[in-house]
Amino acid sequence: MKSPVGTYELTSGARLRVFADHGDSDGYGLEITCDGHTVRYDSGHSAREVHAFVALFT
pTM for the complete prediction? Predict the structure, then answer.
């Protein structure tokens, strides 16, 4: 499955940044920024989970 690393514009106007989790070679971390606030979600999400999230919200 293709690596989902990158930045995505979400339909709500928020921005999603996906980054490789260096502690878990198969996982990805998520960071969402909206209205100047940033929330970082724990790492370890699979590429399939990230692709599903992006598909739902873009």
Answer: 0.83
